[in-house]
Structure of Branched-chain-amino-acid aminotransferase:
Amino acid sequence: DVTMSLTFVVEPNAHPLSAAQRADLLVDPGFGRVFTDHMAIVRYSTDKGWHDARITARSPVTLEPAASVLHYAQEIFEGLKAYRRPQGAALFRPDANARRFRASARRLAMPELPEELFLESVRALVKADIDWIPQDEDGALYLRPFMFASEVFLGVKPASEYLYIVMASSVGRYFKGGPRAVSLWVTREYTRAAPGGTGAAKCGGNYAASLAAQADAISRGCDQVVFLDAAERRWIEELGGMNIFFVFDDGSIATPPLDGTILPGVTRDSILTLARDAGIAAREERYSIEQWQADAASGRLTEAFACGTAAVVTPIGRVQGEGIDFTINGERVGPTTQRIREALVAIQRGTAPDPHDWVEEL
Ligand code: COI
């Protein structure tokens, strides 16, 4: 198979930013605004398969106005991080992202990128831009692999040509304002994904569909929107861009089950595993908004947190919506949230053993 032996031709950026310019950008990068010198790119066409794999200077992509992604949104993406190590860098569960990228491709009727090619693209880009990994304890290189239909055609069908690109962004925390509990707005107006839809795929369309609801949340002074299920409008699904966990007074934790409408988060999965390792009962079960309100009022619910590659583990301090307004744990980070966050981050940063072989050092 030609594809499997594809190696990345490295064309170094002839005009990289200077060390001083880079250092300036890394002081307070925020999230998703600072981009590195290089990108990985691979092309696909139905007749040639995967070809033309390169690491090259990050540069604009030229598209025909009729490129089908611009009309019918055939696009998928991933998010994963590279962390600084004394000698080099480390990736966290990149194989899980490679696998999910294939699953997303199937749902969007796109060609499945071989997992080894995904992994090679990420490794090669991190090596090219290793100096862009921030030094500080919240910093990382956020990798954004994505693929879109580039065929010039307005018929509605799976395209015959695609571009796969990986870019890298030096990041700090996702939420502005330092470590703090975030607030949520429960939308009754919008849903994110229906049974049979694309909710479990990481496609741009899901995020496009979330933006009006997310903007609504922001306009009400909240950080993230909470989506309820589309069928019954009761069951908590996920937030605008992250999964959610609940912590109870018996020490157990719970998160909504993967029933096809929820993004199967790598961080979500890692937390379930780490919690069980630590002897914490961790359930995947449906949890309704009514129950959440009642449990917050009675004290059965003691903490809640958001999780994702970008958000890591972020405490939830306040929940609002029509007829809903309650706070959780005095809007402070709770002990279980803190413990889970520390356990996860320690493995990612290499300060604790890695019993599940999640970390790949480069
Ligand atoms: C991530 O956590 O990596 C995400 O994809 C969330 C968001 C930035 C889209």
